[in-house]
Amino acid sequence: MNKNYFEIKRAGINTTFQDQGRDNLYHIGIPFSGAMDNRNFQISNKLVGNEVNFPIIEFAYQGPLLKYFGEKINFAITGDVKFIIRKKNNTFEGKCYQSFALENGDELDIISTNKSVYGYLAVSGEFDVNYQWSSCSINTKANIGANNGKKIEDGQKINILNINKNLSDKKLNYINTKIENIRVIQGTNFDYFSDKGKKIFFEKEFVISKLSDRMGMRLEGPKIENIFDTNIKSEGLLKGVIQVPADGNPIIMLSDHGTIGGYPKIGVVISADYDKLVQLTPGSKIKFKKVELADAETLFKLYDLETQNLISQI
Q1: In this predicted model, what pLDDT tens digit does every residue of 29-64 receive, in sequence order?
Q2: Which one, 62, 142, 241, 293, has least CB within 10 Å?
């Protein structure tokens, strides 16, 4: 066994290995997957001196309890997360967007996310994971990626390779902000819906259902009327596409979505709003705002530039 490793005392909820996902496999039914919140994923790696696409541990709601064995190592957690570090007889509360040291026998207890869904754990080394199609990202629906495509489990041991010896402390002053108005571009089946249905989509509030996961986010609210056909010949799907099934309640396709679907598509969430969208918890209220494709492209460039500027500050 590798001399540096985590022992998983409690796996937490939906704890997986993720990186930036896998490209250009839609033709064989494989979506991108990857970290749900790409900005927080990249920042976590940068805080421990890694390349921004190194594998990390992503968790939802409750994170893992890990005991560390090995030489001194740094870690960082991003998101809106409560966690504590236990060192022998001392316990202290950690802070997100700041690196901390772990030594042999220390425990890291990631208790919960705070009014958000996903958090990210990076270490100053490389998790010993297997790759599939140039990515370690786990898609539990398809059983692909690291860990045999399964969630991390209780009692599992996770080896860490190539520890970075530069253990300088790093910190970023960053606050996650909420979003209520989700900007979308018009979907390919936009005209399948009545004028009243379109008006409802852009003017009324929707509530995020508990039936949401890495594959999709179900919404509840006023029904969106379809005047053409509630089922269509299956077509390709993309991350952020908003489908409307026969019950009139929208479903937003997320990172592990199916690559084809037969529900009409009323809109697509713009890439600049995706990271904040996925952090909204069940029960949150959202509204949709229409933008043009050119505006969506500009907004993404600005969001990406802002992300790179944050990373450059670390």
Answers
A1: 999 999 999 999 999 999 999 999 999 999 999 999
A2: 293
| pTM exceeds 0.90 | yes
Question: Can you tell me the distance from the alpha carbon of 194 to that of 192, in angstroms, rounded to the nearest whole number?
Answer: 7
Question: What is the pLDDT at residue 2?
Answer: 65
Q: Which residues, at least 6 apart from 206, have a Cβ–Cβ distance to it below 8 Å?
A: 219, 220, 221, 250, 285, 286, 287, 288
The structural domains of the chain, ordered by start, are 5-161 (no CATH), 181-312 (2.40.100.10)
Place of tokens 């606050």: 175
Query: Is there a contact between 36 and 58 (Cβ–Cβ < 8 Å)?
Result: yes
Strand partners, 181: 287
Identify the pLDDT of residue 24.
87
Q: Are 138 and 106 in contact (CB under 8 A)?
A: no
Nearest-10 Cα torsion for 117, 20, 257, 291: 80
Question: Which token pair is 41?
Answer: 């994923």
Return the C-alpha torsion angle 142, 31, 24, 122, nearest 10: -90
Q: Mind listing the pLDDT tens digit for each residue in 240-284?
A: 999 999 999 999 999 999 999 999 999 999 999 999 999 999 999
| Cβ atoms of residues 135 and 145 within 8 Å | yes
Rounded-to-integer distance, Cα 91 and Cα 84, Å: 7
Average pLDDT of the chain, as a whole number:
96
